[in-house]
């Protein structure tokens, strides 16, 4: 806690203009480890898309807070998460997305678990053809579950199990989506950007603030800065733009929009009248993350293959414009000039500061 307070001391200084997080918050392994112990374990973390687990037995491994986790769809159609660790010798069970059938089998000694995590087989554990032992309790050696919540197409986990109920945690975000007919929301495409060479917070902060839009996205969007406003609402923060005329095309975004982030890593963009985009941001280290984007239509809107292709191309270009900026932000944190953080605009980046305040609060209480 003392080390984190020292790193964050410039951030906590009182001044008329607020500063951003210091460089170490984006570059140091010490800060990353503190986030793993706090931010990623205490809160509800988005870890996957339900549409990527269509069938019983579909399993997707993901690493969160340096820990291997496994997301599985069981025989009842439920999505569950477990620590991706065999209870025998702690081998990671699944190393790539696949369908495991009815059993999750350890490749080392063939221990097998059903899709609800119960241990079903421990071959020869007690000796040749002795598959049990008087001191061994199979019921006590199943996979360790992780608290899981599926909201629409989005899978969340709370690793330490202590976060408030998901409905309460997400209430401010869901309140800003009031009136959405979720039964008419359909995923039409997914973009996989792979690894992005920046700290995960830069992706979040870039989405939260509207200041950069007219400069970075001048060829892919038509949303004047003066039409934007910022949003700060508990766990939800971001910005919005209300346009008198919707002028968006397949090659440019010029529609009323809501750019909503839920702390710490969930991002949802709503683009009127009938589109949603959700980012899957998986932090993998101080300077890297994995990112996907799922594109959804709303209100039962139909898109043919040409429309979907054009939409995918548009969002690929928008993301690549953002990635260039966030990766250069990462490079800039190598300078000593960045040790005290940058100066934040009180008009356009108060929502960024709110996000950073939540980060600072979490990591500064890492031992509580």
Description:
The chain has 368 residues and is of the alpha+beta class. The chain folds into 2 domains: 227 residues, Naphthalene 1,2-dioxygenase Alpha Subunit, Chain A, domain 1 (Alpha-Beta Complex); 114 residues, Rieske Iron-sulfur Protein (3-layer Sandwich). Helices cover 25% and strands 28% of the residues. The chain is built from 10 helices and 17 strands. The strands form 3 sheets. A 7-stranded antiparallel β-sheet has the order 1-10-9-4-3-2-5. Strands 11-17-16-15-14-13-12 form a 7-stranded antiparallel β-sheet, with helices on one face. Strands 6-7-8 form a 3-stranded antiparallel β-sheet, with no helix packed on it. Strand 15 and strand 16 form a beta hairpin. The N and C termini lie close together (9 Å). The mean pLDDT is 93.
Topology:
Elements: H1 2-12, H2 24-27, H3 29-37, H4 39-42, E1 45-49, E2 58-64, E3 67-73, E4 79-83, E5 98-99, E6 103-105, E7 112-114, E8 119-121, E9 145-151, E10 154-158, H5 166-169, H6 171-175, E11 186-196, H7 200-208, H8 213-216, E12 228-233, E13 236-241, E14 257-262, E15 266-271, E16 275-285, E17 288-297, H9 305-332, H10 350-363
Antiparallel strand pairs: 1-10, 2-3, 2-5, 3-4, 4-9, 6-7, 7-8, 9-10, 11-17, 12-13, 13-14, 14-15, 15-16, 16-17
């Amino acid at each position: 806690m003392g080390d984190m307070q020292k790193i964050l001391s410039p951030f906590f200084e009182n001044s008329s203009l607020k500063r951003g997080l210091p460089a170490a918050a984006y570059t140091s392994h010490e800060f990353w480890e503190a986030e793993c112990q706090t931010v990623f374990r205490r809160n509800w973390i988005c870890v996957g898309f339900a549409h990527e687990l269509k069938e019983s037995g579909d399993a997707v491994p993901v690493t969160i807070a340096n820990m291997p986790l496994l997301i599985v769809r069981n025989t009842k159609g439920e999505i569950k998460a477990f620590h991706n660790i065999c209870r025998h010798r702690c081998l990671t069970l699944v190393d790539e997305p696949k369908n495991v059938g009815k059993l999750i089998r350890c490749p080392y000694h063939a221990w097998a678990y059903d899709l609800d995590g119960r241990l079903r087989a421990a071959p020869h554990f007690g000796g040749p053809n002795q598959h049990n032992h008087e001191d061994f309790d199979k019921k006590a050696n199943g996979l360790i579950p992780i608290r899981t919540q599926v909201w629409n197409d989005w899978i969340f986990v709370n690793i330490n199990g202590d976060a408030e109920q998901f409905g309460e945690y997400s209430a401010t975000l869901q309140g800003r989506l009031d009136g959405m007919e979720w039964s008419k929301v359909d995923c039409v495409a997914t973009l996989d950007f792979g690894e992005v060479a920046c700290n995960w917070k830069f992706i979040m902060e870039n989405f939260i603030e509207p200041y950069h839009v007219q400069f970075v996205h001048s060829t892919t969007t038509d949303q004047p800065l003066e039409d934007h406003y910022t949003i700060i609402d508990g766990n939800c923060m971001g910005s919005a733009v209300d346009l008198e005329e919707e002028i968006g095309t397949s090659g440019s975004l010029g529609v009323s929009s809501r750019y909503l982030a839920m702390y710490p890593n969930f991002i949802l963009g709503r683009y009127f009248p009938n589109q949603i985009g959700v980012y899957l941001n998986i932090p993998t280290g101080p300077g890297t993350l994995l990112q996907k984007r799922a594109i959804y239509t709303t209100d039962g809107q139909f898109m043919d293959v040409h429309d979907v292709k054009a939409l995918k191309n548009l969002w690929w270009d928008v993301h690549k414009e953002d990635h260039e900026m966030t990766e250069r932000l990462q490079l800039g944190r190598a300078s000593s000039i960045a040790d005290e953080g940058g100066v934040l605009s009180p008009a356009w980046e108060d929502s960024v500061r709110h996000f950073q305040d939540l980060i600072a609060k979490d990591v500064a209480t890492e031992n509580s």
